[in-house]
Amino acid sequence: AQSVTQPDIHITVSEGASLELRCNYSYGATPYLFWYVQSPGQGLQLLLKYFSGDTLVQGIKGFEAEFKRSQSSFNLRKPSVHWSDAAEYFCAVGGADSWGKFQFGAGTQVVVTP
Amino acid sequence: DTAVSQTPKYLVTQMGNDKSIKCEQNLGHDTMYWYKQDSKKFLKIMFSYNNKELIINETVPNRFSPKSPDKAHLNLHINSLELGDSAVYFCASSRRGTGNTGELFFGEGSRLTVL
Question: What does the pLDDT look like over B45-101, one tens digit per residue?
């Protein structure tokens, strides 16, 4: 069965500091991995995705993520956060056969302090 | 132009009532979904339609009935609303097929509050 664990429920980071959000997954086949961001009262926006090839993927808003098969991880990073990065971040796993039945993690809330 | 649009954005209603949420996508996608986000922000799939055919039907009470009149529209009707139905319901769409990774494009959500 597929599952996603985001170990950090809540992270507080200073503006300008780096950010790393952790994601561990379990999936029986080749995973497709995604990070989404949800601002308050908004829908989910895709930040980046991995399905094959280069294990370091670049996304929008200056985010990147690295797929590590040996660790079943897909951690999200940003070198320097902006106040507008305060939001809820969701990691999700799916696959070619999943028909969009993604398993989402519980989310990590990011608070950015001045 | 909003890619995936849902209406209404907010619904407040009494227990026992029936309500509907509508969704439309203009992305040309062939698959649409309903996801439910509970008060703890946990997201879980409810239904999925591919080319108007129901392909995913999770363990959801039969008070919930989706309908897809065409590839661009997916509606959700809920009968006899209960307190536990209070949640944010997200519509999403994706494109399947070779070369597509099927990432989901979400609407802004419809917040349902049952009193």
Answer: 999 998 888 888 888 899 999 999 999 999 999 999 999 999 999 999 998 766 667
A44 chain-B contacts, CB cut-off 8 A: 43, 90, 104, 106
Whether the pLDDT of residue A67 is over 90: the answer is yes
Report whether A102 contacts A37 (CB < 8 A): no
- Burial status of residue B19 (CB atoms within 10 A of its CB: 0-12, 13-18, 19 or more): middle
Residue A71 has pLDDT above 70, yes or no: yes
Cβ within 8 Å, pair B41-A46: no
| CB contact (8 A) between residue A104 and residue B40 | no
Beta strands in B1-115 (DSSP E): 4-7, 10-13, 19-25, 31-37, 43-50, 53-57, 64-70, 73-78, 87-94, 105-106, 110-114
Nearest CA in chain B to A40: B108
What distance in Å separates the CA atoms of residue B94 and residue B42, rounded to the nearest whole number? 20
Averaged confidence pLDDT in chain A: 93
Check CB contact of A60 with chain B, cutoff 8 Å.
Answer: no
**Quick check: B69 and B76 in contact, CB under 8 A?**
no
Confidence of residue A12 (pLDDT cuts 50, 70, 90): very high
